[in-house]
Every structure is written in C-alpha cells, then in structure tokens.
C-alpha cells in the first residue's frame, strides 16, 4: 500500500515498547502478540524492527479484524520482547461535525459486527443513558462528539478504580476508570444509538504518563472517525496497532501458560 496523502503524513513518529516476561515453566509457553501496526489510509508504516531475547521462531498471521498477530513460544526464564516502529501519521485528528448517521441497511457488511453488544460493551443495557447523553445532538457525528464530551466531563480518570473485568456498565455506574474504560463506555453508548463503534489500541504522541493508549472509532458519514473521550479535544499523533470489538480482541499479549509480565516500557518520539 502506498503512503497516505501528503496532508495525512506530516508527522513522523518513532514508537515502541519493551515487555519483560518471567516464564515459570519447564516448558516453553505459547504466546500471541499484537504489537505490529499496519499501513492504512491514515498511517504509513515506514520502518519496523522486532527483537526477541533469547531469539525464538515466530509466525505471523492476520486475525478476523485485520490485525497483524505473531505466534511464538516463550522459553523458560527471562524473555524480552522489543518492538520499534517508525510511522507517518496525521498531526491532527480529522473531524466532520454534521456528518450524518448511516442507516443500518446502508452500512458495509464489515461494520455490522460493531453494532452488537460485546463482552465489555453491553450496549443493550445502556440504551436509556445513551438517549439521555445524546439528546439535542444531530444523529451521527455530533451524537458521538456529545458522548465523548459527556464522558470527559462526568467520568473521573483514576488509576486503580477498575480492572481487566470492568465493563462499560460498571464504568457508567462508578463514574471512574482509565482509557480503556472511557473507550468501552463510548463504544457501548454509540452502539445503543445504532452507530458502529470499535476499540483501538496504539501509541499517542505526548501522552502523560507514557503508556499504550486506548480510544475508539465510530462509523458515521460513510467512514470511520477517531474519538478519544479521555481528551477534551482529541489530538492527532496516533499510531493504531490493533482494532476490535473491545479489549478482549486487542490484547497486546496473550499467554497460554505461567508467564508473568514484570516490566513494560513504552515510548513515542518525533522521528
């Protein structure tokens, strides 16, 4: 695929992460990694490097959402995974106030799965809240922007108030969480209004504190747009690594045995 249009690739970012595992097993532990971005209409993957210490064989495949995944076996003891990428992406998020709601009958087949309730986004249980939050906004982009505004103003960003089992329903009740919880709630409220929405994980330039980040995309006006309810105004400088229905589909690391993640380091800089 060719690089994005010039206006979309004004920012060149160098990003990466390092994962340190302790494998407490006499046998290698199977892993699935989801650490490799793909070139798309909004980003161009210019360089990529992966380092495994110790080195082991790796096989890559594409999952049902189009994400690049790697299969490997982590050997016993200390195992380090390092991924480094250089990507060209838009310095500002595209927006489209007034973009209309797409009727379900007009949606592309690939978007339909992002209308359905999922493990962390029980949209069928949040319909009343969605109608309240979206009241007064034009159907489509403006409703999604209103949802993000409401989450940003009413949900407290606070570490330790949620865990990997927390759903959008619990976030709406407890009014606190972290980026993944904000994204789950935004996704669930959008789906309640028959707006397809999907979760994205990746890198965000100048995120503080630096870590992997989660946001969401909504399908309105005939295409996907980026929304980030953790920010009052969603910024650009993003490298999307994976998309899915919710966090269950976009885990950076999935293990099938006793492997403890002891360290994780993330960086994003101007290339």
From TrEMBL:
<dbReference type="InterPro" id="IPR002931">
    <property type="entry name" value="Transglutaminase-like"/>
</dbReference>
<protein>
    <submittedName>
        <fullName>Transglutaminase-like putative cysteine protease</fullName>
    </submittedName>
</protein>
<feature type="domain" description="Transglutaminase-like">
    <location>
        <begin position="171"/>
        <end position="231"/>
    </location>
</feature>
<keyword id="KW-0645">Protease</keyword>
<dbReference type="GO" id="GO:0006508">
    <property type="term" value="P:proteolysis"/>
</dbReference>
<dbReference type="InterPro" id="IPR038765">
    <property type="entry name" value="Papain-like_cys_pep_sf"/>
</dbReference>
<dbReference type="GO" id="GO:0008233">
    <property type="term" value="F:peptidase activity"/>
</dbReference>
<dbReference type="Pfam" id="PF01841">
    <property type="entry name" value="Transglut_core"/>
</dbReference>
<keyword id="KW-0378">Hydrolase</keyword>
């Amino acid at each position: 695929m060719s690089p994005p249009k010039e206006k979309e690739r004004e920012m060149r970012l160098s990003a990466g992460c390092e994962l340190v595992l302790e494998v407490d097993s006499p046998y290698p532990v199977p892993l699935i990694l989801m650490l490799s971005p793909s070139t798309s209409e909004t980003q161009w993957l210019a360089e990529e490097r992966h380092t495994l210490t110790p080195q082991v064989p790796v096989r890559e495949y594409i999952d049902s959402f189009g994400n690049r995944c790697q299969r490997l076996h982590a050997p016993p003891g200390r195992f380090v995974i390092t991924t480094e990428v250089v990507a060209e992406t838009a310095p500002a998020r595209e927006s489209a106030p007034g973009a209309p709601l797409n009727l379900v009958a007009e949606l592309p087949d690939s978007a339909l799965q992002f209308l359905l309730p999922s493990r962390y986004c029980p949209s069928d249980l949040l319909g009343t809240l969605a109608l309240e939050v979206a009241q007064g906004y034009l159907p489509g982009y403006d409703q999604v922007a209103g949802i993000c505004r409401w989450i940003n103003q009413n949900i407290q960003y606070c570490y330790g108030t949620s865990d990997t089992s927390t759903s959008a329903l619990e976030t709406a009740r407890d009014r606190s969480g972290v980026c993944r919880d904000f994204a789950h709630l935004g996704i669930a409220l959008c789906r309640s209004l028959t707006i397809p929405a999907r979760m994205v994980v990746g890198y965000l330039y100048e995120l503080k504190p630096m870590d992997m980040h989660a946001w969401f995309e909504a399908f309105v006006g005939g295409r996907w747009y980026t929304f980030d309810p953790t920010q009052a105004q969603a910024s650009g400088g993003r490298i999307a690594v994976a998309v899915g229905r919710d966090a269950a589909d976009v885990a950076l690391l999935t293990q099938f045995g006793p492997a403890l993640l002891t360290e994780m380091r993330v960086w994003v800089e101007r290339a």
